[in-house]
Amino acid sequence: MENMRYVSVKFETTNKIYTFSTTDETIKNNDAVIVETQRGLEYGQVVSNPFDKANVSFEIKPVIRKANQDDLEQFQANKADAFEAKRICQEESDKLNLDMNVISAEYTLDRAKITFTYLADDRVDFRELLKVLASIFHCRIDLRQVGTRDKAKMVSGIGVCGRELCCARFIGDFDRISINMAKNQLLALNVQKLSGQCGNLMCCLRFEDEAYKDLRKELPKLNSQVEYEGERYRITSMNVIAKNCKLENPEHAIFISLDELVSKAKYNKPKTNTESEEESVA
Questions:
Q1: Is the dihedral of CA 57, 110, 26, 23 positive or negative?
Q2: Which SS3 state, helix, strand or coil, does residue 227 take?
Q3: Would you put residue 202 in left (φ > 0), alpha (ψ -120 to 50) or beta?
Q4: What is the pTM (predicted TM-score) of this model?
Q5: pLDDT tens track for 109-144
Q6: Cα dihedral 226→228→232→238 (10° resolution)
Q7: If you ran DSSP here, which 8-state letter would residue 256 be given?
Q8: For the chain, is the Cβ count within 10 Å smaller at the N or the C terminus?
Q9: What phi-psi label fits residue 217: left (phi over 0), alpha (psi between -120 and 50 degrees) or beta?
Q10: Predicted pLDDT of residue 280
């Protein structure tokens, strides 16, 4: 289509970025726009300058229009009303003795639908709850069950590093995480300390994994035997960030740089020293 361009749009409730098409040449980065998603009519923010070709193979929905002041006021009113809707949903589910923890509520911009997100250990039969909520809110009701990682992403918080949780700040989709990734970072395998606020292994183990694999690819394994300056040692500690390691034998212990270890010590060069079976996944 002539003059068809594309923009990336982000919504307040998710870190995912979606692509929409537009023929409006006035739309630019940071503009608020109205789009239609699978959930309905939504208010979003453009987070890119318009570009010519979208890197997707499926049909791309168009931007309906730029948002105006009325849209902004409606969006803010919906957010305020959603807090009360969340309280009501939890109250009604408690009355029905349903084992569910309601995390959030979200209206579509036109209030045609409200989505309740909840946490539960098992599947919940919420058919009766749907009837009750529909009679209260007089719109379509969507109840969506999520896991503990999704809850941490939505609620957010401060991690052990002192910064906002990665999942809330920038992670869009959750990747597979294994204890083997902690081994690649030479961390003590204390699951409690390696777990985030969601109770699962921390996401940073995943997105830091490739960097640690790259840093360790020429290095021997921890606790392996090496020969250095004519003596046999065991590698008892290693810090690939500080680039040093500790070598010990029955007589004494020394600290050397990883550069010295690679250039001066004798050991069997690993082919893939970070490869091992995935032991547990979160």
A1: positive
A2: strand
A3: beta
A4: 0.66
A5: 999 999 999 988 888 899 999 999 999 999 999 999
A6: -50
A7: E
A8: N
A9: alpha
A10: 42
